[in-house]
Write a structure and sequence with these properties.
The protein is an all-beta fold. About 0% of the residues lie in helices and about 50% in strands. A hairpin with a 5-residue loop joins strand 5 and strand 6. The model has no long low-confidence stretch (mean pLDDT about 95).
């Protein structure tokens, strides 16, 4: 059974950093592309970052240069390092394969506020 468990969110001041983790089970993360998404209440889930099987990464424009997606195949975990955080980064962050599976994790709340 495929599962995603996100963690690492919290409250941080503007300019601060957080590292999110996505522990996957039921499949090997190195075998499929993986993505981070975020969602705020009342809006559609938004793509944030992508890591291909090859390790090539892609980011949405608003986070390019600030966020870094990576993976640890031994731990079957995908990470999102977020630096220089802004209030507009506030959202619930989730991970999934690409293309996405219908079963999502609970996500992890990131709040950027002074």
């Amino acid at each position: 059974q495929v599962q995603f468990v996100e963690s690492g969110g919290g409250l941080v001041q503007p300019g601060g950093s957080l590292r999110l983790s996505c522990a996957a089970s039921g499949f090997a993360i190195w075998s499929v592309p993986m993505r981070w998404f975020r969602q705020v209440p009342g809006k559609e889930r938004e793509f944030v970052a992508h890591i291909a099987n090859s390790g090539v990464t892609i980011y949405t424009g608003s986070v390019k240069g600030r966020f870094t997606i990576s993976r640890d195949n031994a731990k079957n975990t995908v990470y999102l390092q977020m630096n220089s955080l802004k209030p507009e980064d506030t959202a619930v962050y989730s991970c999934n394969q690409y293309p996405s599976l219908p079963n999502w994790g609970q996500g992890t709340q990131v709040t950027v506020s002074s």
